[in-house]
Amino acid sequence: QRGAVIETIIAEPMLRFSQLELAHRLRMERTSALRMFKAATGLTFRRFKQWSALQHAARLIAAGELVRTAAMDAGSAGTAHLTRTFRASFGLTPSEAIAAGAQAGAS
């Protein structure tokens, strides 16, 4: 059950998956489900969902999608929000990541 929930979150970043839905799918009380989720992933439920969405956006950007398209597809509130969370997580903006990828490809 736990693995299926994690795979669902990774596969569908736009899915509105609440803490109550997590508890329901795991057949546990909400607090217990959140503790178990953190023990299994090393991240809080909210942080894992954010991380998964950022990974999705990063894959899209690396594949050549526009940042705004990647932001929408990853369920971000917009380009500015994606840029802020991307920088906080990866240490660079999506545009900087694109430039770094282009430089690495040219070397």
- Helical amount: over 70%
Q: Uncertain runs with pLDDT below 50, 5 residues or more?
A: none
Q: Which strand-content bin applies to the residues?
A: under 5%
Shape: elongated
Number of strand elements? 0
User: Could you describe the largest sheet, including whether it forms a barrel?
Assistant: none
Mean pLDDT: 87
Q: H/E element string?
A: HHHHHHH
Class by helix and strand content? Answer: mainly alpha
Radius of gyration: 16 Å
Discrete helix count: 7
How far apart are the first and last residues' alpha carbons, in Å?
44 Å
What would you say this structure looks like, in words?
The chain has 107 residues and is mainly α. The protein is 75% helix and 0% strand. It contains seven helices and no strands. Helix 2 (19-26) crosses helix 3 and helix 4 (45-62) packs antiparallel against helix 5. The relative contact order is 0.11.
Compact summary:
The chain is mainly α and 107 residues long.
Notable features of this structure?
mainly alpha; 0% strand; 75% helix; elongated
How does the SSE layout of this entry go?
Layout: H1 2-11, H2 19-26, H3 30-41, H4 45-62, H5 67-73, H6 79-90, H7 94-106
Helix pairs in contact: 2-3, 4-5
